[in-house]
Amino acid sequence: MNPFDLTGRVAVVTGALGKLGPVWSEALLRAGATLVGLDREGAPPSPAFDALAQAFEKRVLWLPADVRDRASLERARERVVAEVGAPAILVNNAGVDAPPGSGGSARIEDVPADVFLGILEVNVVGAFQVTQVFGPAMVAAGRGSVINVGSLYASVSPDARFYDHLSPPFLKPPAYGASKAALVNLTRYLATHWGPRGVRVNALSPGGVLGGQDAEFRRKFTARVPLGRMAETGDLGGPLVFLASDASAYVTGAELRVDGGFTAW
Fold first, then answer.
1. How far apart are alpha carbons 41 and 44 in whole angstroms?
2. Does the structure show a pLDDT above 80 at 104?
3. If we measure between CA atoms, which residue out of 24, 32, 80, 22 comes closest to residue 52?
4. How far apart, in whole angstroms, are the C-alpha atoms of residue 13 and residue 94?
5. Residue 193 and residue 206 in contact, taking contact as beta carbons nearer than 8 Å
6. Cα distance between residue 237 and residue 27, in whole Å
7. What positions carry a catalytic annotation?
8. Residue 258: which of 231, 226, 219 has the closest Cα?
9. Which domains does the chain have, with CATH numbers?
């Protein structure tokens, strides 16, 4: 038997139309899972997710749901159970960040409290609320895997020198790393709470993923990575399938850092 095989299992991915949503979705689909992608109504379209829906037509379902809106999540859960079956895998991927060029405050003393709270609302409270809605089906079944998408910045602070060549000045949102650190700790809480019921909860924390960054940023960042490069999307699917599948049957409460060694020094 192949311990990485997910055939017959229903996997729910939040933020499915975002940057990494299609990456997680493709990995789960190629491992045999039936995929349910959740994203908020009116989210920007994703050609990558649309391509997956065409290629794996019978195993892809997209549903509108906002991680901040419990009622929308409950409606989505009802449709998931009715149309494809109870979820066995949950990937809490939906998150808020602010890359260079997106605006925002350049000084920490100017960051509005509501901006800080807005990031926490999606990245932490949202993930908790999704798990509240979809996790009990796994508890009832006595098996399941919840994977919270963290970040290397759950463990270390962003290095402001990566951005000091940019104009206008850029400040990595202080709430982003704080939210991911909180999510990793929430992972441990849920893992110990649901472990006796057969549900595993782990975090997968990517490092910097290549995706249109300027050359100077890439030079600075890769100089800090022992493997000497940024992550590519193809580096992420295998670790996710490992955590989702029986290959990690005795792994729970862990943070799997896929960061090329960035946090090793």
1. 9
2. no
3. 22
4. 8
5. no
6. 5
7. 176
8. 231
9. 10-251 (3.40.50.720)
pLDDT surpasses 80 at 101: no
Q: How many CB atoms lie within 10 A of CB 224?
A: 16
pLDDT at 102: 72
The torsion angle over the Cα atoms of residues 93, 196, 28 and 92, rounded to 10 degrees, is -10
Complete DSSP assignment for 10-56 = EEEEESTTSSSHHHHHHHHHHTT-EEEEEE-TTPPP-HHHHHHHHHT
Model pLDDT for residues 128-149, shown as the tens digit of each residue: 999 999 999 999 999 999 999 9
C-alpha 178/C-alpha 16 separation (Å) is: 23
How deeply is 188 buried, as exposed, middle or buried, from its count of CB atoms within 10 A (0-12, 13-18, 19+)?
Answer: middle
Question: What is the pLDDT, as a whole number, of residue 81?
Answer: 98
What's this model's pTM, rounded to 2 decimal places?
0.96
CB neighbours (10 Å) of residue 167?
6
Sole residue written with tokens 């409460």: 253
